[in-house]
């Protein structure tokens, strides 16, 4: 399991916080964009798998995942360019393929004796790896999930980059991070929950408009709470 969670976290970090608007635009418009994005995943995988890198099998696994990540993303781009609308089904299939191969590679590597011994020795770090995965999912992955869900019920096509202004997106990241932390650690911190949303309310009043989606607000908050509840079980 330690192998899976390390590679899963590498995937989450590469696909969400490190896939900025600039990286996403390069992936869509430049021939080297997919290589850049895939290499960010490969770099994160190498960093997180550092205790295991003395094994040639681990290096082979990382390279396979790196190549597969680029192949899947390129195939998705080709489908969208041919007139297929980018929607929730493609997003979910993309994630299932990536995470599914991470699971298969992790299962294979866990059967290598040398790797299994290192995995057992590094089990103490597993809680922190899972905690990081919970925070990355709640802070950065949830807006994209909300975007695709809302798109199912909308007659207007909109790119994610135009879905929410940058300032509001950053505010959402902070809100979900704080909400996840409050639920994770609990206790008297629960009294701070109303304060988490005050900046959003203040900015709405200052700008005289609501530059965010209620879908994103409600579903994002729900995902942050769920991530916090799961994180509570890790300690």
**Coarse structural class:** mainly alpha
Q: Based on CA inertia axes, which overall geometry fits?
A: flat
Tell me the strand percentage band: under 5%
Count the domains: 2
Cα separation of the termini = 17 Å
Radius of gyration from the alpha-carbon trace, in angstroms: 19 Å
The overall average pLDDT, rounded, is: 87
Give the count of helical stretches: 12
Helical percentage: over 70%
The count of DSSP E runs of length 2 or more, i.e. the number of strands, is: 0
**SSE series:** HHHHHHHHHHHH
Largest sheet: none
Q: Enumerate the spans where pLDDT stays under 50 for 5 or more consecutive residues.
A: none
Characterize the structure shown.
The chain has helices at 2-15, 21-29, 33-48, 56-81, 88-109, 113-121, 126-152, 160-163, 166-185, 193-196, 198-207, 214-232. By secondary structure, the chain is mainly alpha-helical. Helix 1 runs antiparallel to helix 5 (88-109), helix 3 runs antiparallel to helix 4 (56-81) and helix 4 (56-81) runs antiparallel to helix 5 (88-109). The chain is flat and about 60 Å long. It starts with a helix and ends with a helix. The mean pLDDT is 87.
